[in-house]
Amino acid sequence: VQLVESGGGLVQAGGSLRLACADSGRTVRRYAMAWYRQALAKEREFVAGISWTGTSTTYADSVKGRFTISRDNAADNTIYLQMNSLKLEDTAVYYCAADVLPLGPKRSPSYWGQGTQVTVSS
Fold first, then answer.
1. Which of 91, 87, 79, 8 is nearest to 49 (CA)?
2. Separation of alpha carbons 29 and 10, rounded Å
3. 116 CB contacts (<8 Å, ≥6 apart)?
4. pLDDT above 70: percentage of residues in the chain
């Protein structure tokens, strides 16, 4: 499993970004996947998760209604995180993750990407 994130960058508060994560090893079709983030001097936290089939999703309370996770198993098993109405506090390094079991706030994934920086400015 080789997870590669893309799509990070600098955006103004209230704006949008879409992150993508592809498995260059093309092995995650049967894996649950998720996005986590880590802000400076803070612990890594769960953001959103999606089941292998894409039919089940979970979100952290802080992003509900603003972020949407999705996946396309036909396109190199890519998952996406559409982030709307971005806030200053969304600034963090965002990591893609995968595991054979469902992912959420209390589980640590088996596989991690390298991360992509998202910076929200005022």
1. 79
2. 31
3. 5, 6, 7, 8, 19, 93, 94
4. 96
Contact predicate 2/24, CB 8 Å: yes
Q: Under DSSP, is residue 107 helix (H, G, I), strand (E, B) or coil?
A: coil
Quick one: which of 30, 67, 65 has its CA closest to 51? 30
- Report pLDDT digits (tens) over 79-98: 999 999 999 999 999 999 99
Tokens of 54: 């894409």
DSSP-assigned letters across all residues of 75-89:
STTEEEEEE-S--GG
Q: What is the pLDDT of residues 55-65, one digit of tens each?
A: 999 999 999 99
Q: Which residue has the tokens 């400015």?
A: 121
C-alpha–C-alpha distance, residues 23 and 27, integer Å: 7
- Identify the bridge partners of residue 11 per DSSP, sorted by sequence position: 120
